[in-house]
Amino acid sequence: MPAIERTRPYIAVIMGVSGSGKSTVAESLAAQLGWDLLEGDDLHPPANIAKMAAGHPLTDADREPWLEAIAAWIAEHVAAGKSGLVTCSALKHAYRDILRRPLIGHSEAELTFILLSGSREQLQQRVTTRPGHFMPPSLLDSQLATLEAPTPDERIVTIEIGSPPAVVAAEALEALHP
Question: For residues 90 and 96, is the Cβ–Cβ distance under 8 A?
Answer without folding.
Answer: yes
